[in-house]
Amino acid sequence: MSDVKGKVLIIDDDDDIAESMQLTLEAHGYEVARAADSKEGFVKLDGEDPDLVILDMMMEGKGAGFLFSRKMRKEAKYARVPILMITGMREQTGFFFPGKTKDPVFLPVDEFMEKPVESKALVKKVAELLGRR
Questions:
Q1: How many CA within 13 A on the CB side of residue 4?
Q2: 53 vs 124: CA distance, rounded Å
Q3: C-alpha to C-alpha distance for 56 and 88, rounded to whole angstroms
Q4: pTM, whole model, 2 decimals?
Q5: d(Cα 119, Cα 77) in Å, to the nearest integer?
Q6: Closest alpha carbon to 10 in 68, 63, 43, 52
Q7: Between 20 and 30 A from 65 (CA), which of 8, 55, 88, 127?
Q8: Which helix (H) or strand (E) holds 32?
Q9: 50 vs 31: CA distance, rounded Å
Q10: What SS3 class is residue 8?
């Protein structure tokens, strides 16, 4: 019997933030895979078959997180995999995403968290999202 609580794929171009989230989640019993951009993210999505995706909103051409979430939701295999989008957008632009469910067509993600992500809040949110499945 495995003690792993679930498999999480972190897609973030900020290596320090991704590593911090990975270490936190692994310390709490999650298996974690990482990708540094959306292209690698799709490769890992297919190869790792995660239970949850943590996705940075602002990668590559600044809209990569939006595009990734839309493309992921179009694939039947991943349509129900929860997406936790993390963003530093409020800090960068002043634009704030409240923690409510978003338009499933415009931005098909389950929850948002602002960077920097606090460790306890991350673990709580991941457990909550995995519990909804």
A1: 9
A2: 15
A3: 9
A4: 0.86
A5: 29
A6: 52
A7: 127
A8: strand 31-35
A9: 9
A10: strand
Measured CA to CA, the distance from residue 41 to residue 106 in angstroms comes to 20
Q: 55 Cβ partners below 8 Å, 6+ apart?
A: 11, 12, 41, 65, 68, 69, 83, 84, 85, 86, 109
Token pair 């989008």 in the structure block, residue: 85
Domain boundaries, the chain: 7-132
Encoded tokens for 57: 């909103």
How many Å apart are CA 114 and CA 20, to the nearest integer? 15
Which homologous superfamily does the CATH classification assign to the domain defined by 7-132? Response regulator (3.40.50.2300)
**Rounded to whole angstroms, how far apart are CA atoms 133 and 127?**
10
Q: Which two tokens stand for residue 90?
A: 């409020």
Our CA angle for 6, 102, 120, nearest 5°, is: 40
Q: What is the pLDDT of residues 49-78, one digit of tens each?
A: 999 999 998 887 677 888 899 999 999 999
| 46 pLDDT more than 60 | yes
DSSP 8-state class, residue 63 = T
